[in-house]
Design goal:
Keywords: FAD, Flavoprotein, Oxidoreductase. The structure is a single chain. This protein is of the alpha/beta class and about 400 residues long. The protein has 3 domains: about 10-120, Butyryl-Coa Dehydrogenase, subunit A, domain 1; about 130-225, Butyryl-CoA Dehydrogenase, subunit A, domain 2, CATH 2.40.110; about 240-390, Butyryl-CoA Dehydrogenase, subunit A, domain 3 (Up-down Bundle), CATH 1.20.140.10. It is about 50% helix and about 15% strand. It contains 10 helices and 7 strands. The protein has helices at about 10-40, 45-50, 70-80, 85-105, 110-120, 245-265, 280-310, 320-345, 355-360, 370-390; strands at about 130, 145-150, 155-165, 170-180, 185-190, 195-200, 215-225. Strands 1, 2, 3, 4, 5, 6 and 7 form a 7-stranded mixed β-sheet that branches. A hairpin with a 2-residue loop joins strand 2 and strand 3 (about 155-165). Helix 1 crosses helix 3. The longest helix is centred in the last third of the chain and has 30 residues, at about 280-310. It is globular. The N and C termini lie far apart (about 50 Å). The mean pLDDT is about 95.
Length: about 400
């Protein structure tokens, strides 16, 4: 997907930033196969993103960050994933989470200000660790087995978290734990130091370089001030920040699309006169790819744009945001499949990236919100409207 002709780039400033990021994405693409093969975390990619200033892009301008919009974040995540999906998904949790706290005003100002200053000055990153072996995804509503016990000056956290993406690169994280003294699940800002152990369990079919290992907390002390209470002006942002997920998978799909188009235009078997791009069946497959990517991207960028423009309606946008994720993620899977049909048996070779795209893109089905949850939101909204109309 050419940046110059991308219909979702709205200004020269956006185009310039995407071009600079694309230079990184090209280098990341050169390393991606090796990290995928070994299942290693791309520390060098994270270092280059830190130098680029990526970590601070969603930090408010008042704290020295970029203050970018959700729409701009979607652009950047998509472009980055065209180089390396694992790197894009991993860093997306950081920039997305910062955007979420910023727009939802989720934390007390002193704690928020401290984090922002550290991100801007040192490029630190955060992510939430919430999934567990017993409870599964936190989006399903289970009570965490991780506990927080009150102690002098704070809390002691004990438990084990799974799918802890970015864990090899973090110096702090957000952990949810059940607190006996309050009788509910709370969130804590935890430093990755004594008592925190990363257990390298991540060995998966796709997205092998996200560093999504298990993290064990063994009586980790958390000062009282790092119990993350919502600020007095906290609002429900509808979860718009989660669009970093479908943006990533659409980026992978666009990379597969571009590979297939180049192949179709250059491959000339001696059984035909020209390239296979001239064959009717190949043209049909390309048309299906264009149908999928244009539909999905229109949905994705329209949802991001509306979220940016209508902050007062964000809480009511959950079905629309979930639908954008469902359409984009499932569309991405179909695009990669169609690209492989165009390329044929060569697409299965480890010497080319299509087979990695095929494995990576399927992981989107297991990132929140899951398809069944989105369908439930859509049904509830439809039935609610029907009931309202009958009154």
């Amino acid at each position: 997907m050419d940046i110059q002709n991308d219909p979702y780039v709205r200004s020269e400033s956006e185009r310039d930033r995407l071009r600079r990021l694309e230079a990184l994405a090209v280098r990341f693409a050169e390393r991606a196969a090796e990290h995928d093969r070994l299942g290693t975390f791309p520390h060098e990619n994270i270092a280059e993103l830190r130098d680029f200033g990526y970590m601070k892009l969603t930090v408010p301008k008042s704290y020295g960050g970029g203050g970018i919009s959700l729409y701009e974040m979607v652009q950047l995540q998509e472009r980055l994933a065209m180089g390396d999906g694992s790197t894009a998904l991993a860093v997306g949790w950081h920039v997305g989470k910062v955007l979420h706290v910023r727009e939802g005003r989720k934390w007390e100002e002193s704690v928020w200000a401290e984090l922002c200053r550290d991100i801007v000055a040192h490029g630190v990153m955060i992510n939430s660790f919430a999934s567990e072996p017993v409870t599964g995804s936190p989006s399903r509503g289970g009570r965490p087995a991780t506990t927080a016990a009150a102690t002098s000056g704070g809390w002691l956290l004990t438990g084990r978290k799974t799918y802890s993406t970015l864990s090899p690169a973090l110096d702090r994280c957000i952990v949810n734990a059940y607190c006996e003294s309050t009788g509910k699940t709370e969130e804590f800002l935890v430093m990755m130091k004594d008592g925190v152990t990363i257990v390298e369990t991540w060995n998966t079919l796709g997205m092998r370089a996200t560093g999504s290992h298990d993290v064990v907390f063994d009586g980790v002390f958390v000062p009282e001030r790092y119990l993350l209470r919502p600020g007095k002006d906290a609002v429900d942002d509808g979860g718009g920040w989660l669009l970093h997920i479908p943006a990533c998978y659409m980026g992978i799909a666009l990379a597969a699309r571009d590979f297939a188009l180049r192949f179709a235009c250059s491959y000339r078997p001696n059984s035909i006169k020209g390239p296979i791009a001239e064959l009717p069946n190949i043209r049909q497959l390309i048309g299906q790819i264009e149908l999928e990517q244009r539909t999905a991207r229109q949905m994705l960028y329209a949802a991001a744009d509306r979220w940016d423009r209508e902050p007062d309606r964000r809480a009511q946008m959950k079905p629309e945001l979930g639908l954008a994720k469902l359409i984009a993620t499932n569309g991405a899977i179909r695009i990669v499949d169609l690209a492989m049909r165009i390329v044929g048996g060569t697409s299965l070779s480890k010497d080319y990236p299509l087979e990695r795209y095929y494995r990576d893109v399927r992981a989107g089905l297991h990132n929140p919100p899951m398809d069944d949850s989105v369908m439930s939101l859509l049904v509830d909204e439809a039935l609610g409207q029907a009931t309202s109309n009958e009154k």
